[in-house]
Amino acid sequence: MEFQDLIRKRESVRNYDSQQAIPEDVLNRILEAGRLAPSAANRQPWKFLVIRSQENLERVHACYNRDWFRAAPVVLIVTGKREAAWTRRYDGYNSLETDLTIAMDHLILAAANEGIGSCWIAAFEPNILHEALQLDEDEIVFAITPLGYPGTGYQGERPKDRKALSEIVRFI
Fold first, then answer.
1. Of 13, 63, 70, 79, which residue is the least packed, with the fewest Cβ within 10 Å?
2. CATH class of the 3-168 domain in this structure
């Protein structure tokens, strides 16, 4: 898909076909897009956790209680460690959130390019995920997304309500 079309068409999907699995090659292309994402000083401070087994999905579902979230056949979780990310020496700014945001954006755009729906979720309970996935104490769960083919009745491609360029761009 042409990139401008992709970014216009990508949207948050909240209706998944729970019976249609994501083929391994499709999932690997999505993950490869995340792997190739840029990061400050090329530190790549991320891990991508792919949750597919019914047992692990049930444990992860407890962190965000929505029926549509439970219908997706895969949950993708992006984590990182602050000490693995680059830190600016002038003021101590740490790039972890920026790096993980870029990786997640690559992942969800790649998913959309493959016809796979996603929905960036930040309103999850991190303590539940830490326990369910037995994460390291210093491992930060940054974002999660279900992955799956859109379900029957999915509306799709609603017009995007965005500010005009004149409201958000300033040429200096």
1. 70
2. alpha beta
Mean pLDDT (the chain, rounded)? 95
Of 141, 114, 102, the residue nearest 125 (C-alpha): 141
Helix (H) or strand (E) holding 28: helix 24-35
User: Could you give the angle at the alpha carbon of 49 between the alpha carbons of 75 and 84, nearest 5°?
Assistant: 140
In the chain, what are the domain boundaries? 3-168
**Distance (Å, whole) CA 44 – CA 150:** 30
Can you name the residues that pair with 103 across neighbouring β-strands?
Answer: none
Residues 99 and 85 sit within 8 Å (Cβ to Cβ) = yes
The predicted pLDDT at position 149 comes to 97
The structure's pTM equals 0.94
> What is d(CA 51, CA 65) in angstroms, rounded to the nearest whole number?
16
Q: What is the pLDDT of residue 160?
A: 80
Which token pair is 158?
Answer: 């609603």
Which residue is listed with tokens 């076909």? 17
Dihedral over alpha carbons 44, 33, 149, 143 (to 10 degrees):
20
Residue ranges, the chain, pLDDT below 70: 153-157
CB 157 within 8 A of CB 9: yes
Using CA atoms in the order 59, 61, 20, 149, what is the torsion angle rounded to 10 degrees?
-140
